[in-house]
Amino acid sequence: MTKRILHVVSNVAHYDDPSHPTGLWLSELTHAWHVFEKHGYEQHLVSPKGGLSPLEPRSLKFPNYDKTAKAWHADEAKMALLANTASPDDINSSDYDAIYYTGGHAVMYDFPDSPGLQKITREIFENGGVVSSVCHGYCGLLNVTLSDGSLLVKGRKLTGFAWAEEKAAGVDKLVPYNVEEEMKKRGALYEKVPVVPFVPKAVVDGRLVTGQNPPSAKVTAKQVVKVLEG
User: Lowest CB count within 10 Å: 70, 100, 102, 125, which one?
Assistant: First the structure.
C-alpha cells in the first residue's frame, strides 16, 4: 500500500503587527515533500481554515530559497495546492500514515488551538501512524491530547525552534510566546543543538518525529520514512 502523508500549513500572513509579514517557510515543506516524493508517497495539504497558505517572504531569499523551493514557487500547479488547501473537516485521518507540521512563525498563531488539527493528529497517532513537525511546526503539538486526556508531548522527547534561534533571527520581540518554554511546561523532554543556532537536528521518540529548524526538514522527513518503513 502506498503511504500517505498529510502536510499541515498555516493560513496566517502576519504577526500581531500587520506591518510584519509572515507565513509558510516554503523550504520546510518542499524539502520534506521531495523526500516523500522519492519514496513514492501520496501527499496532501491541510490548513486550520482551509484555502490559502501565504508564504513567509524571508523564506524566498537565499539561502532558504534553494532548488526545491524555487521549483515549487515556479510551478503553477504546486502553488495552486497552497492556494486551495483542505480544511480539517475535509480530512479522514484514517487515510493517512503520517502528519507533518510545517513551520514559519505564522503557525504560532493558528496551529495550537485548532480542534480539527488536534483531532486528526490524535487519531493518526492512536491508529499507529507517525506525528511529525519541523521548526515552529511543533506549535501544532502543544495542546494535542490523547483519548485518555493526557498531552501527546508529555514525557516524550522532541525538538523545535529554540528561543536562542528566535533571538538570532531578530524576532524575539515579535513572537506571541516562547514555544520552547511552553513545550517544557507541558512536560515535553525538549532537546536542541547547543549554542550554535540553525544546525540541523531531528529527534525520534517512537512514532513522534521532530526537527529543530528550517535546515532540519530533510533529515526529519528521512526519519519519518525510516519509522514508516519499519
Answer: 70
- pLDDT tens digits for 15-61? 999 999 999 999 999 999 999 999 999 999 999 999 999 999 999 99
**Per-residue cell: 114:** 485548532
pLDDT (tens digit per residue) in 110-160: 999 999 999 999 999 999 999 999 999 999 999 999 999 999 999 999 999
Q: Please count the other Cβ atoms lying within 10 Å of the Cβ belonging to residue 143.
A: 19
Contact present, 158 and 138 (Cβ < 8 Å): yes
Residue 54, SS3 per DSSP = coil
Fold for the domain defined by 4-229:
Rossmann fold (3.40.50)
Q: Domain segments of the chain: what residues?
A: 4-229
Query: For the packed helices 217-229 and 26-38, what is the interaxial angle rounded to 10 degrees?
Result: 30
Residue 99's SS3 state is strand
